């Protein structure tokens, strides 16, 4: 609140500086002190209500500018021009804030009508109207368009950040769902192994139960053991049923099928796959064995979907501590079978499975345009890790796939390539077009107005020239008809600001002594009374310049 008040006071002071510093007689003891005081009060009210009633602020400042122009009968004087900064600021405020069009019509409509009527009744000349139109373009239209562009740009930024936030939330949700889905699959895999072990326990307990050399007490114990194993199997099935989603794929095929079987199936489908193995596989823990199988299976599936025709290399490295699996493919040679924007969940699942096995995982685009999936899994299961390698820079991707961020090279759903993102792009393009309009429209209007006024000015100057030789032939007391035969077809459209006493009851006309443009020229004043020339006065360029200065 305090900062807003200070800002308003500083703005009010800045808007009054031109009037106080540039307008002669605006001091406390000057001839225009009341005009300056009235303007300061009007601008102060406009500044105070510019946020709540921006249209009222604009109407006050525009009305002040127009009133001074009509009262002083000089639209391009310093006193009138000093009001333009206030009009600019209030026009910008109207564009910057959301203003109802009907309210704008109700407030600015009567003001515009009153301004036009006042200008017509005051007898403003065409050049004066042109100056006023130029002032409206640069002090009214241009700031309003810039303010409108600023507001729309801000709204678009807010919408863009909100869109990005929603995308991040959606991506995090998808990552979490993929991880939970992979955990459910791991639970199903463990169900197979654990179920097998429980079946063995039940079979052995049954064998003990019917053994002829076993006492009744031990038979009852064996029967209880068999019943407990069967009950454990039923509970395990119930748990897996809860974890499995509706329509979820069946559990993985037995991993004893081996990576070699996966490679052979891919080759049979027409894929060029090369399998490279080093070291002795030996006996791998169940989690590690199934994770290796899943990495190769998911990677080959992704290659056939997203990089058909690409050469694939599957490399397995076994040592005493861990096993590494890397699936690398070259750039695709044909269009993908599916949109890449529909992928990404499988990689997230692989990362989760590798993490739970205590290993590390990374995936990303290679410098040559190919893709690599890499996993390192321990032979001795350990604590779940972060799933990131230490040499992630080798494939040019982050060391881990962070939640809420797109996978490197995977373009998951929610990466922005959807209807909402397309609407955001269209809004951005439309905003750029509106910015061009905001700048180009006022400049174009001013250029057209300048061309028209230049032509009008040149025509008026050429048709209002009284040659010095003709002026010398004019004699005081000559009949108006005789004088009229020597005069040009038009009078000057912009009478000089230098005022000299006119003869009582006379009507005076002004004519240029030269058709030169954009310079101050000598002017001839001819005054008529009772159809006779009663006065002829020459206003030199030097005297006119002195009158304009002071």
Describe the fold and architecture.
- The chain has 550 residues and is of the alpha+beta class.
- It has 4 domains: 2-124, no CATH class; 178-243; 255-395, Histidine kinase-like ATPase, C-terminal domain (Heat Shock Protein 90); 468-549, Beta-lactamase Inhibitory Protein, Chain:B, domain 1 (2-Layer Sandwich), CATH 3.30.1450.
- Helices cover 57% and strands 10% of the residues.
- The protein has 15 helices and 8 strands.
- Helix 2 packs antiparallel against helix 3 (54-72) and helix 7 runs antiparallel to helix 8 (216-243).
- The longest helix is centred in the N-terminal third of the chain and has 84 residues, at 126-209.
- The radius of gyration is 45 Å and the shape is elongated.
Q: Per CATH, which architecture of the largest domain?
A: 2-Layer Sandwich
**Under the CATH scheme, which class of the largest domain?**
Alpha Beta
How many domains would you count in the coordinates? 4
pLDDT average, as an integer?
75
Within the largest sheet, what's the order of strands?
1-2-3-5-4
Largest sheet: 5 strands, mixed
Q: What is the H level of CATH, i.e. the homologous superfamily of the largest domain?
A: Histidine kinase-like ATPase, C-terminal domain
| Count of discrete alpha- or pi-helical segments spanning 4 or more residues | 15
Strand content: 5-15%
Let me know the number of strands.
8
């Amino acid at each position: 609140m305090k900062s807003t008040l200070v800002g308003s006071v500083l703005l009010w002071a800045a808007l009054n500086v031109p009037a106080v510093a540039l307008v002669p007689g605006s001091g406390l003891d000057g001839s225009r002190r009341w005009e300056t005081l009235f303007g300061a009060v009007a601008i102060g009210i406009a500044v105070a209500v510019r946020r709540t009633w921006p249209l009222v602020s604009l109407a006050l400042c525009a009305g002040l500018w127009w009133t001074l122009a009509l009262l002083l009968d000089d639209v391009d004087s310093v006193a009138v021009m000093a009001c333009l900064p206030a009009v600019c600021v209030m026009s910008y405020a109207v564009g910057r804030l959301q203003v109802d069009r009907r309210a704008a019509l109700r407030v600015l409509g009567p003001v515009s009508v009153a301004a036009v009527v006042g200008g017509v009744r005051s007898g403003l000349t065409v050049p004066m109207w042109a100056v006023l139109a130029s002032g409206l373009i640069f002090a009214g239209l241009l700031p309003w368009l810039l303010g409108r562009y600023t507001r729309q740009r801000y709204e678009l930024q807010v919408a863009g950040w909100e869109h990005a936030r929603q995308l991040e939330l959606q991506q995090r949700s998808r990552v979490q769902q993929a991880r939970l889905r992979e955990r459910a699959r791991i639970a199903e895999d463990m169900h197979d192994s654990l179920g097998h072990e429980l079946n063995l326990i039940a079979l052995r307990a049954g064998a003990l139960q019917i053994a002829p050399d076993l006492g009744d007490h031990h038979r009852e114990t064996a029967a209880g053991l068999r019943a407990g194993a069967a009950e454990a199997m039923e509970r395990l099935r119930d748990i897996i049923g809860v974890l499995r989603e509706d329509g979820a794929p069946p559990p993985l095929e037995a991993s004893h099928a081996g990576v070699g079987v996966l490679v052979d199936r891919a080759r049979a489908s027409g894929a060029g796959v090369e399998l490279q193995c080093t070291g002795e596989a030996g006996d791998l823990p169940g989690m590690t064995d199934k994770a290796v199988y899943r990495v190769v299976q998911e990677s080959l599936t992704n290659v056939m979907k997203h990089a058909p025709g690409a050469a694939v290399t599957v490399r397995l490295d076994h040592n005493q501590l861990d096993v590494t699996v890397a699936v690398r493919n070259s750039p695709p040679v044909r269009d993908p079978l599916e949109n890449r924007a529909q992928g990404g969940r499988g990689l997230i699942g692989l990362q989760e499975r590798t993490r739970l096995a205590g290993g590390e995982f990374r995936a990303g685009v290679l410098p040559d345009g190919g893709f690599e999936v890499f996993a390192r899994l321990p032979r001795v299961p350990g604590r779940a890790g972060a799933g990131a390698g230490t040499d992630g820079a080798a494939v040019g991707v982050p060391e881990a796939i962070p939640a809420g961020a797109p996978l490197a090279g995977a373009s998951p759903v929610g990466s922005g390539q959807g209807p909402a993102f397309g609407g955001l792009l269209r809004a951005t393009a439309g905003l750029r077009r509106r910015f061009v309009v905001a700048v180009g429209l006022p400049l174009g209007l001013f250029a057209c107005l300048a061309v028209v006024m230049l032509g009008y000015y040149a025509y008026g100057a050429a048709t209002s020239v009284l040659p010095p030789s003709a002026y010398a032939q004019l004699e005081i007391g000559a009949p108006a008809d005789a004088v009229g035969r020597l005069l040009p077809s038009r009078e000057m459209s912009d009478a000089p600001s230098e005022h000299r006493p006119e003869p009582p009851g006379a009507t005076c006309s002004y004519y240029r002594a030269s058709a030169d443009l954009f310079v101050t020229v000598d002017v001839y004043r001819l005054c008529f009374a009772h159809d006779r020339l009663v006065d002829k006065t020459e206003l030199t360029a030097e005297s006119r310049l002195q009158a304009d200065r002071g």
